[in-house]
Amino acid sequence: MAILGNIIKGVIEITDKLASDNDPAIAQKRVLKELLEKAMNTEFGTHYHFNTILKSKNVATTFSKEIPFFDYNKMNSEWWTKLHDGLENITWPGSPDYFALSSGTTGKTSKRIPVTNDMLDAIKQAGINQVLALSNFDLPPYFFEKEIMMLGSSTELKEQNNHLEGEISGISASNIPFWFRPYYKPGKEIAQIDDWDTRVKKIAKNAKNWDIGALSGIPSWIELMLQEVIRYHNVNNIHDIWPNLQVYTSGGVAFDSYEKSFNALLGKPITIIDTYLASEGFIAFQARPETSAMQLVTNNGIYFEFVPFKPEYIKEDGSLVPNAEVKTLAEVELDQDYVLVISTVSGAWRYLIGDTIEFTDIKRAEIKITGRTKFFLNVVGSQLSVNKMNDAVKELQNHFNIKITEYTISAKRIDGAYYHSWYLGTDNTEIDAKKIAEALDNALKKANKNYKVARSKALKGVHVKLVKASVFHDWNDDNKKKGGQVKMERVMGEEKFAKWEKFVNE
Protein backbone atom coordinates (compact mmCIF):
# COMPACT_ATOMS: atom_id res chain seq x y z
CA MET A 1 0.00 0.00 0.00
CA ALA A 2 1.33 3.47 -0.90
CA ILE A 3 1.31 4.87 2.65
CA LEU A 4 3.50 7.90 1.87
CA GLY A 5 1.51 8.56 -1.31
CA ASN A 6 -1.77 8.51 0.62
CA ILE A 7 -0.39 11.00 3.15
CA ILE A 8 0.94 13.35 0.44
CA LYS A 9 -2.30 13.16 -1.56
CA GLY A 10 -4.34 13.89 1.59
CA VAL A 11 -2.22 16.94 2.46
CA ILE A 12 -2.53 18.22 -1.11
CA GLU A 13 -6.32 17.87 -1.11
CA ILE A 14 -6.72 19.69 2.22
CA THR A 15 -4.30 22.49 1.30
CA ASP A 16 -5.89 22.98 -2.12
CA LYS A 17 -9.35 23.37 -0.60
CA LEU A 18 -8.04 25.99 1.83
CA ALA A 19 -6.44 27.96 -1.02
CA SER A 20 -9.24 27.69 -3.59
CA ASP A 21 -11.35 30.67 -2.47
CA ASN A 22 -9.04 33.32 -3.91
CA ASP A 23 -10.79 35.89 -6.15
CA PRO A 24 -8.42 36.52 -9.10
CA ALA A 25 -9.53 40.12 -9.75
CA ILE A 26 -9.13 41.11 -6.09
CA ALA A 27 -5.79 39.31 -5.92
CA GLN A 28 -4.57 41.32 -8.90
CA LYS A 29 -5.32 44.63 -7.18
CA ARG A 30 -3.26 43.49 -4.21
CA VAL A 31 -0.38 42.30 -6.39
CA LEU A 32 -0.19 45.62 -8.27
CA LYS A 33 -0.11 47.55 -5.00
CA GLU A 34 2.65 45.28 -3.63
CA LEU A 35 4.73 45.67 -6.80
CA LEU A 36 4.48 49.45 -6.74
CA GLU A 37 5.26 49.68 -3.03
CA LYS A 38 8.33 47.48 -3.25
CA ALA A 39 9.76 49.23 -6.34
CA MET A 40 8.76 52.75 -5.31
CA ASN A 41 12.31 53.84 -4.48
CA THR A 42 14.01 52.27 -7.48
CA GLU A 43 15.20 54.45 -10.32
CA PHE A 44 12.23 53.31 -12.42
CA GLY A 45 9.76 53.87 -9.57
CA THR A 46 11.08 57.35 -8.91
CA HIS A 47 11.06 58.27 -12.60
CA TYR A 48 7.42 57.20 -13.04
CA HIS A 49 6.24 58.52 -9.64
CA PHE A 50 5.04 55.25 -8.10
CA ASN A 51 4.35 57.08 -4.84
CA THR A 52 1.83 59.33 -6.61
CA ILE A 53 0.24 56.38 -8.46
CA LEU A 54 -0.29 54.59 -5.13
CA LYS A 55 -2.19 57.62 -3.75
CA SER A 56 -4.60 57.81 -6.72
CA LYS A 57 -8.25 56.77 -6.43
CA ASN A 58 -7.89 54.09 -9.10
CA VAL A 59 -4.35 52.69 -8.96
CA ALA A 60 -4.76 50.40 -11.98
CA THR A 61 -6.07 53.16 -14.25
CA THR A 62 -3.40 55.65 -13.20
CA PHE A 63 -0.71 52.99 -13.58
CA SER A 64 -1.75 52.29 -17.18
CA LYS A 65 -1.88 56.00 -18.04
CA GLU A 66 1.43 57.03 -16.50
CA ILE A 67 3.69 54.18 -17.64
CA PRO A 68 4.24 53.33 -21.33
CA PHE A 69 4.31 49.87 -22.83
CA PHE A 70 7.72 48.20 -23.00
CA ASP A 71 8.96 45.40 -25.21
CA TYR A 72 12.31 43.74 -24.48
CA ASN A 73 14.37 46.07 -26.66
CA LYS A 74 12.90 49.21 -25.07
CA MET A 75 13.09 47.85 -21.52
CA ASN A 76 16.65 46.64 -22.00
CA SER A 77 18.07 49.70 -23.75
CA GLU A 78 16.48 52.22 -21.38
CA TRP A 79 16.74 50.35 -18.06
CA TRP A 80 18.11 46.80 -17.85
CA THR A 81 21.38 47.64 -19.57
CA LYS A 82 22.29 49.55 -16.40
CA LEU A 83 22.17 46.28 -14.47
CA HIS A 84 24.85 44.88 -16.77
CA ASP A 85 26.98 47.90 -15.90
CA GLY A 86 26.84 46.88 -12.23
CA LEU A 87 24.22 49.39 -11.06
CA GLU A 88 21.53 48.47 -8.52
CA ASN A 89 17.94 49.45 -7.72
CA ILE A 90 17.09 50.10 -11.35
CA THR A 91 13.68 48.52 -11.97
CA TRP A 92 13.59 46.35 -8.82
CA PRO A 93 15.38 46.66 -5.47
CA GLY A 94 18.96 45.39 -5.48
CA SER A 95 20.45 43.56 -8.44
CA PRO A 96 19.43 40.17 -9.85
CA ASP A 97 21.54 37.08 -9.20
CA TYR A 98 20.38 35.54 -12.49
CA PHE A 99 19.60 36.50 -16.05
CA ALA A 100 17.40 34.23 -18.17
CA LEU A 101 18.75 33.81 -21.69
CA SER A 102 15.95 33.65 -24.21
CA SER A 103 16.32 33.63 -27.98
CA GLY A 104 12.75 32.38 -28.13
CA THR A 105 11.85 31.88 -31.78
CA THR A 106 13.66 34.91 -33.11
CA GLY A 107 17.22 33.82 -33.71
CA LYS A 108 20.69 33.35 -32.26
CA THR A 109 20.89 36.58 -30.27
CA SER A 110 19.85 35.95 -26.67
CA LYS A 111 17.73 38.29 -24.66
CA ARG A 112 18.94 38.71 -21.09
CA ILE A 113 15.94 38.96 -18.78
CA PRO A 114 16.58 39.62 -15.07
CA VAL A 115 15.47 36.91 -12.66
CA THR A 116 15.37 38.14 -9.06
CA ASN A 117 15.14 36.05 -5.92
CA ASP A 118 11.57 37.32 -5.58
CA MET A 119 10.81 35.86 -9.01
CA LEU A 120 12.41 32.51 -8.09
CA ASP A 121 10.24 32.44 -4.95
CA ALA A 122 7.18 33.22 -7.08
CA ILE A 123 8.04 30.43 -9.55
CA LYS A 124 8.50 27.96 -6.67
CA GLN A 125 5.15 28.97 -5.15
CA ALA A 126 3.39 28.65 -8.51
CA GLY A 127 4.94 25.19 -8.88
CA ILE A 128 3.62 24.25 -5.44
CA ASN A 129 0.19 25.56 -6.40
CA GLN A 130 0.28 23.40 -9.50
CA VAL A 131 1.13 20.35 -7.40
CA LEU A 132 -1.75 21.21 -5.07
CA ALA A 133 -4.07 21.38 -8.09
CA LEU A 134 -3.23 17.74 -8.85
CA SER A 135 -5.87 16.89 -6.24
CA ASN A 136 -8.42 17.81 -8.95
CA PHE A 137 -7.12 15.03 -11.19
CA ASP A 138 -7.94 11.38 -10.64
CA LEU A 139 -4.46 10.16 -9.76
CA PRO A 140 -3.78 7.16 -7.48
CA PRO A 141 -1.86 7.68 -4.21
CA TYR A 142 1.22 5.79 -5.44
CA PHE A 143 1.72 8.41 -8.18
CA PHE A 144 2.87 10.87 -5.51
CA GLU A 145 5.80 8.60 -4.64
CA LYS A 146 7.16 8.44 -8.19
CA GLU A 147 9.97 10.44 -9.76
CA ILE A 148 9.59 13.37 -12.14
CA MET A 149 11.66 13.79 -15.32
CA MET A 150 12.19 17.51 -16.00
CA LEU A 151 13.77 17.94 -19.42
CA GLY A 152 14.81 21.56 -19.61
CA SER A 153 18.01 23.34 -20.51
CA SER A 154 21.32 22.68 -18.75
CA THR A 155 21.57 23.63 -15.07
CA GLU A 156 25.24 24.43 -15.62
CA LEU A 157 24.86 28.20 -15.55
CA LYS A 158 27.48 30.62 -16.89
CA GLU A 159 28.97 33.25 -14.59
CA GLN A 160 28.93 36.75 -16.08
CA ASN A 161 29.62 40.05 -14.30
CA ASN A 162 28.67 38.84 -10.79
CA HIS A 163 25.54 37.02 -11.92
CA LEU A 164 24.65 33.65 -13.45
CA GLU A 165 23.06 33.18 -16.87
CA GLY A 166 21.07 30.34 -18.40
CA GLU A 167 17.63 29.47 -19.70
CA ILE A 168 14.79 29.80 -17.22
CA SER A 169 14.22 26.03 -17.05
CA GLY A 170 17.89 25.55 -16.11
CA ILE A 171 17.77 28.35 -13.53
CA SER A 172 14.59 26.92 -11.99
CA ALA A 173 15.95 23.37 -11.91
CA SER A 174 19.17 24.57 -10.25
CA ASN A 175 17.04 26.11 -7.48
CA ILE A 176 14.64 23.25 -6.75
CA PRO A 177 13.71 22.87 -3.05
CA PHE A 178 15.76 20.34 -1.06
CA TRP A 179 12.67 18.24 -0.33
CA PHE A 180 12.01 17.80 -4.06
CA ARG A 181 15.52 16.67 -5.03
CA PRO A 182 14.98 12.92 -4.36
CA TYR A 183 12.08 13.00 -6.86
CA TYR A 184 13.88 15.06 -9.51
CA LYS A 185 15.37 13.33 -12.53
CA PRO A 186 17.67 13.18 -14.45
CA GLY A 187 19.47 14.47 -11.35
CA LYS A 188 22.11 17.13 -10.85
CA GLU A 189 25.01 15.45 -12.65
CA ILE A 190 23.18 14.72 -15.90
CA ALA A 191 21.17 17.97 -15.82
CA GLN A 192 24.43 19.95 -15.87
CA ILE A 193 25.51 18.50 -19.24
CA ASP A 194 25.36 21.37 -21.71
CA ASP A 195 25.24 19.37 -24.95
CA TRP A 196 21.66 18.25 -25.45
CA ASP A 197 22.41 15.06 -27.42
CA THR A 198 24.94 13.91 -24.82
CA ARG A 199 22.47 14.63 -22.02
CA VAL A 200 19.71 12.63 -23.72
CA LYS A 201 22.05 9.67 -24.30
CA LYS A 202 22.87 9.68 -20.57
CA ILE A 203 19.15 9.77 -19.77
CA ALA A 204 18.54 6.80 -22.07
CA LYS A 205 21.38 4.82 -20.49
CA ASN A 206 20.03 5.41 -16.96
CA ALA A 207 16.31 5.20 -17.77
CA LYS A 208 15.78 1.73 -16.31
CA ASN A 209 17.15 2.87 -12.95
CA TRP A 210 14.30 5.35 -12.47
CA ASP A 211 10.61 4.95 -11.71
CA ILE A 212 9.24 7.93 -13.62
CA GLY A 213 5.66 8.97 -12.88
CA ALA A 214 5.64 12.36 -14.64
CA LEU A 215 7.39 14.19 -17.47
CA SER A 216 7.84 17.93 -17.88
CA GLY A 217 9.17 19.88 -20.87
CA ILE A 218 8.54 21.23 -24.36
CA PRO A 219 6.74 18.59 -26.50
CA SER A 220 9.20 18.44 -29.42
CA TRP A 221 12.20 17.79 -27.16
CA ILE A 222 10.32 15.42 -24.86
CA GLU A 223 9.37 13.38 -27.93
CA LEU A 224 12.97 13.14 -29.11
CA MET A 225 14.08 12.08 -25.63
CA LEU A 226 11.39 9.40 -25.45
CA GLN A 227 12.35 8.14 -28.92
CA GLU A 228 15.98 7.83 -27.82
CA VAL A 229 15.04 5.92 -24.64
CA ILE A 230 12.81 3.55 -26.64
CA ARG A 231 15.50 3.03 -29.30
CA TYR A 232 18.31 2.50 -26.76
CA HIS A 233 16.41 -0.22 -24.90
CA ASN A 234 14.81 -1.68 -28.05
CA VAL A 235 11.26 -1.65 -26.64
CA ASN A 236 7.89 -0.89 -28.19
CA ASN A 237 6.93 2.18 -26.15
CA ILE A 238 8.00 4.24 -23.17
CA HIS A 239 5.70 2.37 -20.77
CA ASP A 240 7.90 -0.70 -21.28
CA ILE A 241 10.59 1.29 -19.46
CA TRP A 242 8.48 3.50 -17.16
CA PRO A 243 5.28 1.53 -16.49
CA ASN A 244 4.10 4.04 -13.86
CA LEU A 245 4.27 7.08 -16.14
CA GLN A 246 0.90 8.82 -15.73
CA VAL A 247 1.33 12.57 -16.23
CA TYR A 248 2.96 14.88 -18.75
CA THR A 249 3.09 18.60 -18.00
CA SER A 250 3.53 20.25 -21.38
CA GLY A 251 4.73 23.80 -21.89
CA GLY A 252 6.16 26.34 -24.28
CA VAL A 253 3.83 25.60 -27.21
CA ALA A 254 0.31 24.31 -27.79
CA PHE A 255 0.25 20.54 -27.31
CA ASP A 256 -2.57 19.86 -29.82
CA SER A 257 -0.35 19.56 -32.88
CA TYR A 258 1.94 17.09 -31.07
CA GLU A 259 -0.81 14.90 -29.63
CA LYS A 260 -0.81 12.25 -32.37
CA SER A 261 2.95 11.74 -32.52
CA PHE A 262 3.27 11.89 -28.71
CA ASN A 263 0.58 9.26 -28.13
CA ALA A 264 2.35 6.93 -30.56
CA LEU A 265 5.21 6.67 -28.06
CA LEU A 266 2.94 5.54 -25.20
CA GLY A 267 1.65 2.13 -24.21
CA LYS A 268 -1.43 3.53 -22.46
CA PRO A 269 -3.14 6.94 -22.09
CA ILE A 270 -1.70 9.44 -19.63
CA THR A 271 -2.91 12.76 -18.20
CA ILE A 272 -1.73 15.84 -20.12
CA ILE A 273 -1.46 19.06 -18.09
CA ASP A 274 -0.59 22.33 -19.84
CA THR A 275 1.70 24.90 -18.22
CA TYR A 276 2.84 28.38 -19.20
CA LEU A 277 6.34 29.08 -17.89
CA ALA A 278 8.16 31.88 -19.72
CA SER A 279 11.55 33.49 -19.16
CA GLU A 280 9.64 36.32 -17.45
CA GLY A 281 7.86 34.09 -14.94
CA PHE A 282 5.40 31.26 -14.23
CA ILE A 283 2.26 32.66 -15.84
CA ALA A 284 -0.41 29.94 -15.80
CA PHE A 285 -1.11 26.22 -15.40
CA GLN A 286 -3.98 23.83 -16.00
CA ALA A 287 -5.75 23.44 -12.67
CA ARG A 288 -8.55 20.98 -13.47
CA PRO A 289 -9.21 18.08 -15.86
CA GLU A 290 -12.50 19.38 -17.30
CA THR A 291 -10.63 21.78 -19.56
CA SER A 292 -7.25 22.15 -21.25
CA ALA A 293 -7.31 25.89 -20.45
CA MET A 294 -4.80 27.25 -17.95
CA GLN A 295 -5.44 29.32 -14.84
CA LEU A 296 -3.47 32.56 -14.58
CA VAL A 297 -1.26 32.81 -11.50
CA THR A 298 -2.97 35.97 -10.26
CA ASN A 299 -1.82 36.08 -6.61
CA ASN A 300 1.90 35.65 -6.92
CA GLY A 301 4.29 38.28 -8.25
CA ILE A 302 2.79 39.09 -11.68
CA TYR A 303 0.24 41.80 -12.54
CA PHE A 304 -1.60 41.24 -15.82
CA GLU A 305 -3.07 43.67 -18.33
CA PHE A 306 -4.83 42.80 -21.57
CA VAL A 307 -4.88 44.75 -24.84
CA PRO A 308 -7.60 43.70 -27.34
CA PHE A 309 -5.85 42.13 -30.32
CA LYS A 310 -7.10 44.53 -32.98
CA PRO A 311 -5.22 45.78 -36.07
CA GLU A 312 -5.39 49.41 -34.94
CA TYR A 313 -3.44 48.56 -31.76
CA ILE A 314 -0.67 46.43 -33.29
CA LYS A 315 2.35 47.68 -35.22
CA GLU A 316 3.94 45.62 -38.01
CA ASP A 317 6.75 44.47 -35.70
CA GLY A 318 4.21 43.11 -33.20
CA SER A 319 4.59 45.96 -30.68
CA LEU A 320 1.71 48.08 -29.39
CA VAL A 321 0.74 51.62 -30.32
CA PRO A 322 1.13 53.96 -27.29
CA ASN A 323 -2.60 54.66 -26.88
CA ALA A 324 -3.81 51.06 -27.21
CA GLU A 325 -6.87 50.24 -25.15
CA VAL A 326 -6.05 48.18 -22.06
CA LYS A 327 -8.24 46.00 -19.82
CA THR A 328 -7.74 44.73 -16.29
CA LEU A 329 -8.73 41.21 -15.29
CA ALA A 330 -12.02 42.61 -13.98
CA GLU A 331 -12.84 44.07 -17.42
CA VAL A 332 -11.99 41.29 -19.91
CA GLU A 333 -14.55 39.44 -22.03
CA LEU A 334 -14.92 36.02 -23.59
CA ASP A 335 -14.39 35.41 -27.34
CA GLN A 336 -11.72 38.11 -27.65
CA ASP A 337 -8.01 37.70 -28.29
CA TYR A 338 -5.82 39.84 -26.02
CA VAL A 339 -2.17 40.81 -26.13
CA LEU A 340 -0.69 39.86 -22.76
CA VAL A 341 1.10 42.64 -20.85
CA ILE A 342 2.81 41.90 -17.52
CA SER A 343 4.53 43.67 -14.62
CA THR A 344 6.62 41.44 -12.37
CA VAL A 345 8.80 41.04 -9.28
CA SER A 346 11.80 40.92 -11.61
CA GLY A 347 11.29 44.55 -12.58
CA ALA A 348 9.51 44.11 -15.91
CA TRP A 349 6.93 46.90 -16.22
CA ARG A 350 3.97 46.91 -18.62
CA TYR A 351 6.03 44.41 -20.54
CA LEU A 352 4.86 42.95 -23.84
CA ILE A 353 5.63 39.26 -23.52
CA GLY A 354 4.65 38.61 -27.14
CA ASP A 355 1.80 36.15 -26.62
CA THR A 356 -1.90 36.51 -27.37
CA ILE A 357 -4.46 34.78 -25.18
CA GLU A 358 -8.21 34.23 -24.98
CA PHE A 359 -10.27 33.75 -21.84
CA THR A 360 -12.30 30.57 -21.57
CA ASP A 361 -13.54 31.21 -18.02
CA ILE A 362 -13.29 34.73 -16.59
CA LYS A 363 -14.33 33.89 -13.02
CA ARG A 364 -11.57 31.29 -12.79
CA ALA A 365 -9.14 33.45 -14.83
CA GLU A 366 -8.61 30.55 -17.23
CA ILE A 367 -6.99 31.18 -20.60
CA LYS A 368 -5.63 29.51 -23.68
CA ILE A 369 -2.71 30.81 -25.70
CA THR A 370 -3.88 31.77 -29.19
CA GLY A 371 -0.61 32.84 -30.77
CA ARG A 372 2.23 35.32 -30.92
CA THR A 373 1.94 38.98 -31.85
CA LYS A 374 4.82 38.51 -34.28
CA PHE A 375 3.43 35.24 -35.64
CA PHE A 376 0.08 36.63 -36.66
CA LEU A 377 -0.06 36.24 -40.43
CA ASN A 378 -2.10 39.13 -41.77
CA VAL A 379 -0.64 39.69 -45.22
CA VAL A 380 -3.52 40.68 -47.57
CA GLY A 381 -6.00 40.39 -44.67
CA SER A 382 -5.76 36.64 -44.01
CA GLN A 383 -5.66 37.19 -40.21
CA LEU A 384 -4.27 33.77 -39.29
CA SER A 385 -3.35 33.19 -35.66
CA VAL A 386 -1.23 30.29 -34.45
CA ASN A 387 -4.18 28.52 -32.87
CA LYS A 388 -6.02 28.50 -36.23
CA MET A 389 -2.91 27.05 -37.86
CA ASN A 390 -2.59 24.42 -35.12
CA ASP A 391 -6.24 23.43 -35.58
CA ALA A 392 -5.75 23.06 -39.33
CA VAL A 393 -2.61 20.94 -38.87
CA LYS A 394 -4.45 18.72 -36.39
CA GLU A 395 -7.25 18.27 -38.94
CA LEU A 396 -4.65 17.24 -41.56
CA GLN A 397 -3.22 14.64 -39.20
CA ASN A 398 -6.63 13.09 -38.63
CA HIS A 399 -7.73 13.25 -42.28
CA PHE A 400 -4.56 11.75 -43.76
CA ASN A 401 -3.64 9.62 -40.71
CA ILE A 402 -0.15 11.13 -40.50
CA LYS A 403 1.97 12.72 -37.78
CA ILE A 404 3.03 16.34 -38.32
CA THR A 405 5.36 17.29 -35.48
CA GLU A 406 6.56 20.67 -36.76
CA TYR A 407 5.61 23.30 -39.32
CA THR A 408 6.38 26.81 -40.48
CA ILE A 409 4.66 29.20 -42.87
CA SER A 410 5.34 32.43 -44.73
CA ALA A 411 3.42 34.72 -47.07
CA LYS A 412 5.55 34.56 -50.20
CA ARG A 413 5.36 36.75 -53.31
CA ILE A 414 5.54 34.84 -56.58
CA ASP A 415 5.26 36.85 -59.82
CA GLY A 416 3.75 39.76 -57.88
CA ALA A 417 1.05 37.68 -56.19
CA TYR A 418 0.90 36.40 -52.59
CA TYR A 419 0.82 32.70 -51.67
CA HIS A 420 0.96 31.02 -48.31
CA SER A 421 3.95 28.71 -48.37
CA TRP A 422 3.91 25.91 -45.78
CA TYR A 423 6.59 23.44 -44.73
CA LEU A 424 5.26 20.46 -42.78
CA GLY A 425 7.55 18.19 -40.77
CA THR A 426 6.49 14.56 -41.16
CA ASP A 427 8.02 11.19 -41.88
CA ASN A 428 5.18 10.53 -44.37
CA THR A 429 6.79 12.64 -47.09
CA GLU A 430 5.50 10.41 -49.89
CA ILE A 431 1.92 11.75 -49.57
CA ASP A 432 0.75 14.02 -52.38
CA ALA A 433 1.60 17.56 -51.25
CA LYS A 434 -1.07 19.04 -53.55
CA LYS A 435 -3.80 17.08 -51.78
CA ILE A 436 -2.41 18.22 -48.44
CA ALA A 437 -2.42 21.85 -49.66
CA GLU A 438 -6.03 21.58 -50.83
CA ALA A 439 -7.20 20.08 -47.52
CA LEU A 440 -5.23 22.69 -45.55
CA ASP A 441 -6.73 25.51 -47.59
CA ASN A 442 -10.27 24.20 -47.10
CA ALA A 443 -9.76 23.72 -43.35
CA LEU A 444 -8.61 27.33 -42.95
CA LYS A 445 -11.48 28.66 -45.08
CA LYS A 446 -13.96 26.91 -42.80
CA ALA A 447 -12.24 28.09 -39.61
CA ASN A 448 -11.55 31.71 -40.53
CA LYS A 449 -13.88 33.97 -42.53
CA ASN A 450 -11.10 36.57 -43.02
CA TYR A 451 -8.89 33.93 -44.58
CA LYS A 452 -11.74 32.85 -46.86
CA VAL A 453 -12.22 36.44 -48.06
CA ALA A 454 -8.47 36.87 -48.60
CA ARG A 455 -8.38 33.66 -50.68
CA SER A 456 -11.08 35.04 -52.95
CA LYS A 457 -9.04 38.21 -53.56
CA ALA A 458 -5.33 38.90 -53.05
CA LEU A 459 -4.18 35.58 -51.56
CA LYS A 460 -3.79 33.45 -54.68
CA GLY A 461 -3.04 30.02 -53.30
CA VAL A 462 -1.40 27.61 -50.87
CA HIS A 463 1.84 25.74 -51.46
CA VAL A 464 2.93 22.84 -49.25
CA LYS A 465 6.28 21.05 -49.03
CA LEU A 466 6.75 17.97 -46.88
CA VAL A 467 10.13 17.50 -45.19
CA LYS A 468 11.44 15.22 -42.49
CA ALA A 469 10.77 16.49 -38.97
CA SER A 470 14.50 16.21 -38.28
CA VAL A 471 15.07 19.15 -40.67
CA PHE A 472 13.31 21.44 -38.17
CA HIS A 473 15.45 20.13 -35.32
CA ASP A 474 18.60 20.67 -37.39
CA TRP A 475 17.48 24.24 -38.17
CA ASN A 476 17.06 24.98 -34.47
CA ASP A 477 20.44 23.41 -33.75
CA ASP A 478 22.09 25.47 -36.49
CA ASN A 479 20.39 28.76 -35.54
CA LYS A 480 20.06 28.48 -31.79
CA LYS A 481 20.48 25.38 -29.68
CA LYS A 482 18.79 22.05 -29.17
CA GLY A 483 16.48 21.39 -26.24
CA GLY A 484 15.59 23.69 -23.37
CA GLN A 485 13.16 26.49 -24.18
CA VAL A 486 13.93 26.53 -27.93
CA LYS A 487 10.82 26.55 -30.12
CA MET A 488 10.32 26.55 -33.88
CA GLU A 489 9.06 29.81 -35.35
CA ARG A 490 5.61 29.15 -36.82
CA VAL A 491 5.53 32.25 -39.03
CA MET A 492 8.54 33.73 -40.82
CA GLY A 493 9.06 36.96 -42.68
CA GLU A 494 10.21 36.76 -46.29
CA GLU A 495 13.89 37.36 -45.48
CA LYS A 496 14.02 34.69 -42.76
CA PHE A 497 11.98 32.32 -44.91
CA ALA A 498 14.50 32.65 -47.75
CA LYS A 499 17.23 31.51 -45.34
CA TRP A 500 15.01 28.64 -44.20
CA GLU A 501 14.39 27.46 -47.77
CA LYS A 502 18.11 27.66 -48.54
CA PHE A 503 18.80 25.58 -45.43
CA VAL A 504 16.22 22.97 -46.44
CA ASN A 505 17.57 22.72 -49.97
CA GLU A 506 21.12 22.31 -48.72
From TrEMBL:
<dbReference type="InterPro" id="IPR055378">
    <property type="entry name" value="GH3_C"/>
</dbReference>
<dbReference type="GO" id="GO:0016881">
    <property type="term" value="F:acid-amino acid ligase activity"/>
</dbReference>
<dbReference type="Pfam" id="PF03321">
    <property type="entry name" value="GH3"/>
</dbReference>
<feature type="domain" description="GH3 C-terminal">
    <location>
        <begin position="390"/>
        <end position="495"/>
    </location>
</feature>
<dbReference type="Pfam" id="PF23572">
    <property type="entry name" value="GH3_C"/>
</dbReference>
<dbReference type="GO" id="GO:0005737">
    <property type="term" value="C:cytoplasm"/>
</dbReference>
<dbReference type="Pfam" id="PF23571">
    <property type="entry name" value="GH3_M"/>
</dbReference>
<feature type="domain" description="GH3 middle">
    <location>
        <begin position="297"/>
        <end position="364"/>
    </location>
</feature>
<dbReference type="InterPro" id="IPR004993">
    <property type="entry name" value="GH3"/>
</dbReference>
<dbReference type="InterPro" id="IPR055377">
    <property type="entry name" value="GH3_M"/>
</dbReference>
<protein>
    <submittedName>
        <fullName>GH3 auxin-responsive promoter family protein</fullName>
    </submittedName>
</protein>
